[in-house]
Amino acid sequence: MKKILLGIAAFLVVLSGGAGAGSALLGGGSGRINTYNKTVLNAATAASTTASAVVNIGSFAQLYWTVGATSASATIKFACSFADSQPTFTDARTATNTWDYIDITDVEDESSIDGDTGVLLVSGSTDTRLFQMENTGYKWCTTFQTDWYEGTLKVTVLGSTNY
Fold first, then answer.
1. At 154, which helix (H) or strand (E)?
2. Which of 10, 39, 41, 132 is most buried, judged by most C-beta within 10 A?
3. How far, in Å, CA of 141 to CA of 62, rounded?
4. Domain annotation for the chain: domains and CATH numbers
């Protein structure tokens, strides 16, 4: 009987992906499920006309944004849309081009940043900032760089189906 029970236990360990899988199933283990990391803006400068990429984030429950700045003075705003088809974020918001600036949370101190205000990078900032947001039904997201006077920016987004 012991051999049968040990055999069943070994079989279950193999099915679950190995001995370390149990801790992941209990929340103490590794990684996120279905991650997606996309560069939205890559090494763009204030003098460039680089537009931010629009990303389809509809299948992700959480979004984690990274803003890397080198000697930058700018304001970063995050914008999303519930629309089925990709809106034109560079055009005015209308009844048929639906999008808005969104509120995000600063990971450092869990402060909420209003979407219309955005994230201010103080004159000459060289910093990396991390933000998170819950996806409450958005399908499309992007960023806007406003009041951009100097420096280089890189923005990435990581989508995840769990924490």
1. strand 140-160
2. 41
3. 12
4. 1-30 (no CATH), 32-160 (2.60.120)
